[in-house]
Design brief:
alpha/beta; Rossmann fold; 2 domains; 7-stranded parallel beta sheet; 6-stranded parallel beta sheet
């Protein structure tokens, strides 16, 4: 019986935790059918508990980055020796730990190594700037010792290949499984003539909420347009960045500082939204783009590689420079005035191999 180790001590919430859960859910059945022993190194077992999986729990690495790095590059090596012969060690969170294993792979989520951070990131979210500075170094450590890297998009494969001199044939693109089910009713649910824009994201500086706030102010002052609402999922009290947004644009009635909303509420909001704006400057995917494209309504997206790839197949999409609120305001004004000439259908491009459509295809490649 060969041993597979999944290391994921840093995955505790949101999309990355969902990846861990999906991975172990699949391996719970796959391991029995194919005679593999699976060991998962996780923060807490209850976060992703499934039968036929052995667990090693540790909270210490999550307390601070120095702990995490020590655990990845020192403690993991001892753990791998204690386990014995490991056939595949699959790190699900960016780092390539120092371990003893016949085969090694790493799932790369973090695209901050490609983020062009600015001074205000240092002021409002120094961790973001530090991520951008040090992610490349963290990725670089041991990365060439992997048999495979796993990423979610083609542009990320190309970027990592160039950054570290890795053969792209060793980088598998495995796109997240996003429901492509069209909502039962894609008709807009509104009762007035207000044109509604929405951006749902966490209150972090790289999400670039300010470009929507700036564009909204331009619509009011320069275009003299007021029959719109820009809803953002920031309340203004979450952190320094959120407070700065509220202080500068909180008095504009057309900007709705809604704050965090659960998924069920977000789905309701999609039904009432005329246009999704997605200005984030760095993403590994951009889930709301996939979700909102099912409504076949306008989307204004940051003109960046991740957005172009995530928006493939969407029907009414335009792109803007995420640092240019005037360009965004022009696009918003056109839509409010009923002009959709800037929008276009986005072609679906063939994805080069190696690629995996699901966990079974991915592990068949990692284990062959």
């Amino acid at each position: 019986m060969k041993t597979i180790v999944i290391s994921a001590v840093n995955l505790v919430e949101a999309g990355t935790l969902a990846i861990l859960q999906d991975c172990l859910r699949f391996l719970s059945d796959y391991s029995v059918k194919n005679n593999y022993k699976v060991i998962a190194i996780v923060h807490r077992k209850e976060l992703a508990e499934f039968p036929n999986i052995e667990y090693i729990e540790t909270q210490w690495p999550k307390k601070k980055w120095t702990n995490r790095l020590w655990y990845e590059y020192v403690s993991m090596n001892k753990i791998s020796k204690d386990i014995g012969t490991v056939y595949l060690w699959f790190s699900l969170h960016d780092t390539s730990p120092s371990v003893q294993a016949e085969r090694r792979a790493v799932y790369c989520h973090n695209s901050f190594s490609f983020y062009k951070w600015k001074l205000h990131d240092l002021v409002f979210a120094p961790k973001i700037a530090l991520f951008a500075i040090f992610t490349k170094l963290i990725y670089k450590t041991n990365i060439l010792k992997n048999d495979y890297l796993v990423v979610q998009q083609e542009w990320f494969r190309s970027g990592l290949s160039k950054m570290f001199g890795i053969n792209p044939k060793k980088i598998i693109v495995s796109r997240p499984r996003i429901s492509d089910d069209t909502p039962e009713n894609i008709e807009l649910k509104t009762t007035d003539d207000t044109y509604r824009f929405l951006f749902a994201g966490s209150p972090n500086s790289h999400k670039n909420f300010e470009v929507i706030c700036q564009a909204s102010k331009i619509l009011l002052e320069e275009y003299k347009i007021s029959n719109f609402k820009s809803t953002i999922t920031v309340k203004g009290t979450e952190n320094k960045y959120a407070s700065w947004l509220l202080k500068n644009w909180g008095k504009i009635d057309q900007i709705d500082f809604m704050g965090f909303i659960p998924k069920a509420k977000l789905v309701e909001l999609y039904a009432e939204t005329n246009c999704l704006i997605y200005p984030s400057k760095v993403e590994s995917w951009g889930l709301p783009i996939s979700e909102f494209s099912n409504y076949e309504r306008p989307m204004l997206l940051a003109d960046l590689p991740y957005a172009h790839e995530t928006a493939e197949g969407s029907l009414k999409t335009a792109y803007f420079n995420p640092d240019d609120p005037k360009q965004l305001a022009r696009l918003m004004a056109s839509l409010i005035n009923g002009n959709e000439s800037n929008l276009s259908n986005q072609p679906v491009k063939d994805l080069a191999k190696p690629k995996a459509e699901n966990w079974e295809e991915l592990f068949n490649m990692l284990l062959k």
